[in-house]
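Researcher: I'm preparing a figure for a lab meeting and need a structural model of a single chain. I don't have an experimental structure, so a prediction will have to do for now. The sequence is pasted below. Please return the structure as tokens so I can convert it later.
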Amino acid sequence: MTTDRNQTQTDRRADGEGTVPPRHAWSVERVARDLDADLQHGLSEGAAAARLARVGPNRLPSPGGKPVWKIALEQFTSLIVLFLVAAAAIALVAGDTVEAVAIGVVIAINAVVGFATELRAAQAIASLQRQAAPTARVLRGGVERTSAVEDLVPGDVVLLAEGDRVPADGRLIESARLQLQEAALTGESQAVEKLADADVDERAPLAERLTMAFLGTTVTAGRGRLLVTGTGRATEVGRIGVLLEETELHATPLERRLEKLGRVLIGVVLAVAAVVVAAGVLRGNDLIDMLEVGIALAIAAVPEGLPAVATMTLALGVQRMARANALVRRLPAVETLGSTTVICTDKTGTLTRNEMTVRCFVVADRRIDVTGVGYDPSGRFERGGEPVDPADDELLRSALMIGVLCNDARLADDADRAVDADGGHGDGDAVLGDPTEGALLVAAVKAGIDLEALRDAQPRVDEVPFDAAERRMVTAHRHDDGGVVYVKGAPAVVLERCDRVATDTGSEPLDDAARARWRGVAEDLADEALRVLALAVREVPDDDAPNARDDGLTFVGLVGMIDPLRDEAARAVARCRAAGIRTVMITGDHPRTASVIAHGLGIDRGLDGAELRTWYGPDLEGRDEAGWREAVADAAVFARVSPEHKLRIVEALQARGEVVAMTGDGVNDAPALRTADIGIAMGIKGTEVAKEAAAMVLRDDDFGTIVRAVEQGRVIYANIQRFVHYLFSCNLAEILTVFLAIMLGWPLPLAALQILWLNMITDVFPALALALEPSDPDVMRRPPRDPAEPLLSRAYVVLIVWQGLLLGGVTLAAFAVGLGWYGRGDGLPHAVTIAFSTLALTQVAHTFNARSVRESVVSRRTFANGWVWGAVLLCLALQLLAVYQPGLQRVLGTVALDPRDWALVASLALLPVVVTEVVKAFGRRRG
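Model: Understood. Here is the structure written out token by token.
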């Protein structure tokens, strides 16, 4: 007893930071005893909760992001802020303390806005990453459940399957051809075979601890059960401080284009500012005043709100996509979506409901149909419309038994389903495991078979897990009369391994003619869009040990299943076609099955209506790069393809200039997901490896969600173009107003602080409102944009220039009228205030011009964006304060305006809207 107590105390140290006992060298029973764990039933919920409170969540310290202080400091290092600092310094030298303080306030406001925007974007991404938190299958109180990885505790029993990321350190309880990729931890590039019963030395290095699995490693093959021994900081990863996954955020193509555009603009503005200063000095203006005007003019002309608005637009787009069940893990995905030309999609669960349903069995010379849909266990067996009792049909019952025992799935119990109804993970949790295997279990339940009793009567002793290359699964079982081997898989594969066929009177040799007949039956079922599996058996004599050898089999029959199409799948594919996006279906199904489904969805026709073909995976072997490019040119469906084929398909499409979105869910899909322009992982059925490789994760595995995300990507890019159009034309108007006044020998129409006011008020709020414009009705009826096109095309540049000239022209006109009314002496402040207010209101009105380059201001969409109207009202209210509030009058140099002044301001401010409407009307008439 003393030894046990001491050992238990040693074990407890492993829950924290203390010495780790050599559990890799212990027996499973000893580890379970010292962890007070139940290998058969797992921990109870109460015990797990108590341990979680004691040891804390299974979570590593978050990778060190950018500190808050650094985000704040970076707001004062940009060229724009340096310009403002220079302006404040010049104001102090000139003795204008009020102006210097005002510029300091502008610097502070700019820093606060930038800081808040970047911090909010970082928090939005962090929030989405928390929503995408990984899960694990765990045994709690004898019931398999899906649990958040961070809720695991020492003593939990975790189920591992191919594609899983190991969620904690643990001692293997059982292993079936289990292989793990441990490169992230040990540096060993090859997968390591794990053995629960291996004899391991206590001093074995990490890479040789074959009985253990470690947090962050990946299951590449097989399955197993793991007894958790360490979580969080008490894992090997936690102890040595390895950062398993560290996503480095690079500048997106859009951000790079904005940065390049900004550099060009700064160069132009500095040149113009130099000319303005020189011209002013030559005309007799004070040098200090002109330097201040030149710097303020340069700052005003560079849209410093652009990066903040762009970042906020992308962050808001990410949040919108999250609400539409698309979790964007990397910001480049937002803009890439808008230019997608091809979507390569899986069929199961994406185009279909992922509720595989058995439709029929074919045994001997008869077909037996099965009613019911999805995982609902209600349904019956029929032959020719008449009920059939599976208990009276020996071959049918044998086929059902194979489906149950050659199977790794489980049906959730009623308690789990009740949890789902109250807001859990949904109906998909009715099956834990592969949907195809789940359908076989549901069919057996419909037949009245007790699943657990059958498994207890024939325990599994050996297996060959399903492999995509081999296309079959083999399990060996022991029972009272000896042993038996069950096989399920592709008909062509299983039939080749059979030498006999089951009949109602026993079995008989399976000759080539019989094989051909059964292949024909399988093809007929595939023509009905059914997924077909073959079932076979081999009895093992009592004196032989059963093993998972699959030769000398007896063919039992076929089972046909279908995964019903999602209700919205056909509509989503049609929307893609209208948007100029081609849909390619990639599936492991039979070519005939895939072709029938593709035809039903309209995938088998190209954008030009031409008929596309279905490719059979083996026919693609041996093709060179040119051959692959030729294959993808007219492909609608790739059937029976391997994960390696997916990568070649993506590369071939990209070589043809396509922008490719690729869906995937498995470990072997990761290369294709990384290579695609945007990899999209399935959130429900996808492995953690696939999710980490992808740029976007679908929470509902629905193809329609991809299409909605593409639409949102197009909307985001269109909104970015809107506010860039708005900001650049407004800033151009500001610089032209001052430049032309200097060139004409007029007094300055705008004071430096007035320019800064315009830049911070009438620029930022409307620009943010434009970033929230809803989708255009025809956004998914346009072809994808060319990702190589510049942010501002030549047409946009021309548009910005003539509209900037128009806005600046009406401002100078207002200034000229003001000078005529009030003179250049004591009346100059009055004329300047008129020009200042005219430009402010002109920019506010210009918001409506920027909403669309073709659509009229007065349309069905006039009130579609309430944020625009809110920004307009806010800017008008602030401008009135600037004119009438005494404190702002002193700072900005304004005077109160009378009704005649406002009539002039309003009429000139609306003139650019009228002119733009006329131009738009001519454009619409020309088509």
